[in-house]
Amino acid sequence: MFQKRNSLCLLALLFALFFAPLSYSQTATPKKENRSKLFEEATTDSEYLMAIEKANEMMESAYNDADFDSASHHLFGEIKRTQSKLDLILASLKGANPNVRNQQMYQTVLEEIQQQLDEQNAAINLRNEKLEKIKGRFIELRKDKNLMTLLKDTIRRQQFKKEFANLRKKYLSTDSLMTKNQGILNKKKRITVQRKIAVSNALLVVEGKLEKSGISMLHKEYPFLWSINDSVPKKTVAQNISAKIVIEEKVAAYYFSYRTGGLITLLLFMGLLAWYVSRNLKYLKTNGHSENLSLFNFKYLNRGFLIPVAVIGLNIAVVSNLFAPALFLELLQLLLLGILTILFKNKWSKVAMKNWLFLLGLFFTLCFLDLFIEVGFFQRCAFIAINVLGIRYGLVQIKTLKEQLYIQGFFKWASIIFIAFNSLSILYNLFGRVSLSNMLSLTAFISLTQIVALSVLLKIILEIIILQIYTTRIKRGIEKIFDHESLSNTLKKPFVLVIGYMWVVVIASNLNVWQSLRTSLGALLSRPNNIGSITFTLGNIVLFFIIIWIAHLLQKYVAYFFGEIDDENEENVNKRQHSKLLITRLIVLIGGYLLAVAASGMPLDKLSILLGALGVGVGLGLQNVVNNFVSGIILIFDKPIQIGDVIEISSESGRVKSMGLRTTKINAPNGAEIIIPNGNLLSQNITNWTYTDNFKLVEVSIDITGDTTPDDINATIMEALESLSLVNTTKTPQIFYNAISEGKYKVLVKFWCSIYRTEESISSARQVLFSSFKAKGLNFSS
């Protein structure tokens, strides 16, 4: 009706525009005017042509705007794809296993489809509004006085007959296109409204099933176990299993297609990681250093890179697909555990390996019963048998697994959860709460196996980092084996927090409480709070501190990825690299703090007040702190000293160990660490022995007695110094005679050596000179 009314309005407008009454100009009695026609205001033909051209351009643009663009066709394609997804999900809802995992997947997918339908409906409304605006342009034509005057004047209109015919043709084509597209949009809108109703009804069903699995824990869902008296023919059981397999396959296949984009992204990321690890391993093997990996206590990367990278990818897949259907997720879990078994082979003891395989057998049986066997006496008894075996396993056999793990802190809690959930599962199964019992059983086994997988994940990540450090050091010519154990203990601390979070999320998701926990936590963190005129949320504050913590971690650990560690050989210090690292750390810190301030939601006007108060504080008591901070930035960019330089300042001397934004640490020759504020470094004279190179001119005074000549002495000294690898022979040594008498010579020898090995070079030079002159029968003293 609406479409028909609009079309009639447009036809009426067309009639008004092009078929004005012919009698108007014929019956009207013209007024006689006395003034001259020379000064009469008359419309010329060119002005009429301009009015017709303007109307023509408007209709041309209206036709182009009314036509569907590529975005509209993409929208229609999305509507079609949404329909296919909705049909699949509604069909699978009817016969799939009603466990928590499947219902969570249905809920997530339906909520996303609901959001897509809202967006599609809004897009259709925008296009309807666009068509209404196009219709408004035709109405605006009536305000063109020249065009309306021409339409009313039948005699003059005959002069523009050809132009009006073309204008009418364009009008009819535009009207036809708009009518057609209006009908398409109305049809699409009707479809989206119907789908929204279907999605809302399906969500009510799914949410009801999820609610039943979490409430009324003591409510009898099925008859008590001792009240069941069912006997199902074997043929019927086989048919039920086949039907369940088909349905679960369809649900898993649908979810796989639904998550194809994310899974491809994960595969791409894992491919890049595999390439990165294989490149480092290949470099070490090519240069004959691959055997040294055993010295770093590598357990997994020294056996190849594909399986360790697969372990990382599957762990991420399990955590990133929390609401996947049961078959999809349990296949991921079993695939992960199978790959772990390959890694553990020939690494674990026979007893530990036997207990691990027994655990996998129980888990596989549990998954099969949950997915493909109807709830009945057999299934419930089988679950109880598995729970009993699980309790015994947790009390007796689980200790052998703990001894093989890299991190054992979480394993204690995993054991407690494993035993407790199996015990509760037996209780709920006996009293008819079968869905809750099944959920607790699966969560018990997943919590235990997942902590094993996450422990392996942490070890693999640390091995990748140590591999990167060692490879970078080999490329720089540093073959020294560093203290990898203390480094691993330092690096694993932030990763332990991440792994703990992943473990808790997996357990909460299996218990069907993660969604409610996340919603409650989100409501708590997003609730606005007021202190005076300042409004803030707890989430902004938490995000502020998290970003700052991450920024400090990054600036602390970024050096490790460039092969830098604390026991670095001072002669191989790459000063340019250290300068880049200092600038990188500064950028990370400043960027982190700016991002944290932006994430905190603090208003800029309030921030200016805070900065003003900080300025007053600086003026009163923080001058030294700001002075040292600014001096640190100047030292980083001006580079008068760099890490590894040997410097003297006031009465202190030593090698620069580290440079921070506030202080600089210097290692003194006696082993002391001197901490100097950056302001002092910038305001005092500094002697930098290694600003240009790492060589120092040293002196050795010697006395020679015997029958010889200065030429022989010079030749002996030069020959002895050239035999020393510690002496830099690119710069010619200098020989000076302080005193000469018959058979007695006092000689001063100056030569260049590494400033880091000055004492060693002087000592070696004295020993070689002594041996050389003694071999010639001369007396030598130094």
TrEMBL record:
Transmembrane segments: 256-277, 300-320, 326-344, 356-376, 382-398, 410-431, 451-470, 495-514, 534-554, 582-601, 607-626
Protein's UniProt keywords contain Oxidoreductase: no
Cellular compartment(s): Cell membrane
Main location: membrane
Domain Mechanosensitive ion channel MscS: residue ranges: 624-690
Chain coiled-coil ranges: 103-134
Membrane topology reported for the UniProt record: Multi-pass membrane protein
Keywords: Cell membrane, Coiled coil, Membrane, Signal, Transmembrane, Transmembrane helix
Signal peptide coordinates: 1-25
Matching InterPro entries: LSM_dom_sf (IPR010920), MscS-like_channel (IPR052702), MscS_beta-dom_sf (IPR023408), MscS_channel_2nd (IPR006685), MscS_channel_C_sf (IPR011066), MscS_channel_TM-2 (IPR011014)
Superkingdom of origin: Bacteria
Family to which the UniProt record says this protein belongs: Belongs to the MscS (TC 1.A.23) family.
Name the UniProt record assigns to this protein: Mechanosensitive ion channel protein MscS
